[in-house]
Write a structure and sequence with these properties.
The relative contact order is 0.06. The protein has six helices and two strands; from the N terminus they run αββααααα. It has helices spanning about 45-50, 65-80, 85-95, 120-130, 135-150, 150-160; strands at about 55, 60-65. A two-stranded antiparallel sheet has the order 1-2. Strand 1 (about 55) and strand 2 (about 60-65) form a beta hairpin. Among the domains are: about 45-100, no CATH class; about 120-165, no CATH class. Helix 4 packs across helix 5.
């Protein structure tokens, strides 16, 4: 026989709830279910990034945009050699069309022969593009380089003994 059909006195206590307050068959003990998580707080990012902040610079207080503060800090880090900051700045410049890649005539890496000064190779690259260069082009580049080299460059050239500077 179950307790519901039994009319005998029932002692209420720890682990023995009153019969009237027990869970009913077929009814959940948590009808509302688990509360749903709220997730991330939604904000208007553009408005947040445009809200001016107060900063102190050289002892004076100024109000500037957070984007300017961030970009200034990234620039300082990039100047000090932080590659991730350089990458971030370059991405921002590209995103906002601050760099016009159409105006860059040539870019890349050119290997200058060890037998000539780098400055002479730069002149040749500017005149004739990347190596290899013909003997006529090297002679013309040598003439240009010798006409404009500084005394410091001359001393370095003598110390190193570049072959392409000899006639």
């Amino acid at each position: 026989m179950s307790d519901d059909q039994n009319d005998e006195p029932y002692e209420v206590g720890y682990g023995k709830p009153p019969k009237a307050t027990r869970f009913q068959k077929g009814q959940s003990g948590n009808p509302a279910g688990r509360p749903k998580s709220r997730g991330a707080v939604s904000i208007d990012l553009e408005e947040f990034l445009d809200t001016p902040v107060e900063v102190t610079r050289n002892g004076a207080s100024q109000t500037v945009s957070p984007t300017k503060v961030t970009m200034t800090k990234q620039l300082e880090k990039a100047v000090n050699g932080d590659l991730s900051s350089m990458d971030h700045l370059l991405a921002q410049f590209i995103k906002y069309n601050a760099i016009d890649f159409g105006t860059v005539a040539r870019s890349g890496v050119a290997v200058v022969p060890k037998s000539m000064p780098f400055a002479m190779g730069r002149i040749l690259f500017g005149l004739y593009g990347p190596p290899p260069w013909t003997n006529r082009q090297i002679n013309h580049g040598r003439t240009e380089y010798l006409a404009y080299r500084t005394e410091e460059q001359r001393l370095d050239d003598e110390r190193i003994g570049y072959e392409d500077l000899n006639d």
